[in-house]
Design goal:
- This protein is α/β, with parallel strands linked by helices and about 375 residues long.
- It has 16 helices and eleven strands.
- About 50% of the residues lie in helices and about 10% in strands.
- Strands 3-4-9-8-5-6-7 form a seven-stranded mixed beta sheet, sandwiched between helices. The protein has a two-stranded antiparallel sheet with strand order 1-2.
- Helix 14 packs parallel to helix 16.
- The N and C termini lie far apart (about 50 Å).
- The structure holds tryptophan.
Amino acid sequence: METEQIVTGTEVHSNKPIDYGKLIKDFGSQPVDDEIIDLINQVIIRRGLVDKKDKYLYYFKRGIFFSHRNLKSLLVNYLACMTNDKSSAQTFYIYTGRGPSSESLHIGHLIPFRMTQLLQELFDVPVVIQLTDDEKYYYSKDKKTLADFRAMAAENIKDILACGFNPQKTFTFTNTEYIQNLYPIVVQIQKLVNLNTVQAMFGFDNQSSVGKVSFPAIQAAPAFSACFPNFLPQTGKPLQCLVPCAIDQDVYFRLTSDVAHRLGHPKPVLLHAQFLPSLMGLNMKMSSSIADSVIFLSETEKSIAKKIGKCFSGGGDTIELHKANGANLDVDVPIHYLRFFLEDEAQYMRIRADYGKGIMSTGEVKKILIDVIKGVINQHKALRSP
Ligand code: TRP
């Protein structure tokens, strides 16, 4: 059967590993290349953070944040505006978000938030985080009430803030509470977007609720600094916005870019992440509804070890075959998880080499991964407010 890959704002579906190169082509974005990495490196040096280089670079170097829109010009501008060696330049703010569809986040959800936190630290800029209780309510098929989604948003905020954001420079908001501040911008966006456009972009049909149809403007609005009169400087000149997000959210920001200039705002700059694959194999995305595919932030150490112990690997079928041929790293889940979560570049490269040659066994790699993930979750639990 012909396999089709579908990645939209409301659906991610593929029965093969996702072809991220194809997404760059289809969406018309740019790949994160050596020039981007070099510019980030220059920021690291100018900000005096060279000793933490791996931490700030590994998401870029490993291809986890693999695609962008206009990031180059944002970086060049930032560097040009830095006045002396270590001072930051307040040339932009960061916007990201979360649809509160479950009580606890899983480790895949952490990726864009961890990146956002690292970028906040590296650039010393404000961050706004949207919780779309409205969106998840429109899309829910069960009997959950709007109040349920608001409550999940409040829980999710705790998970998000545990990523270590700077409390002075971070603003989280839940749509049904904050809408008054978004609304003037939402209204201006809605006037410019017609039904045809959102139908084509999001796949809505005549049966789609008007809630779903009008929602894209609400996710677009926070990319305009005028939505935050009490948090962002309002100098008359709108502030540039950088949006780190998983690649499936890009469609919302193509819509945002289409209307930005007509609203007198700059187009948002985008930085796109890959999805963390399912524990069961690279042909699936981690999903909260499939227990064996996912590690929740609330998971116990025992259960982490158990789930990783039985995850899909590309090791040889027998010890002899493994020693002779090594592991198939392309399909190996533990290696991909280390790619996402093991910061130490030298150690990561060493494991890849040894495991690929069969010098290291699957068991040894899984053991390292279990320790890394336990570390991530324990740190998260320590920082999460009750
Ligand atoms: N729609 C996103 C989700 O379902 C939530 C979201 C809102 C978001 N605003 C965003 C994600 C900005 C990334 C960037 O999870």
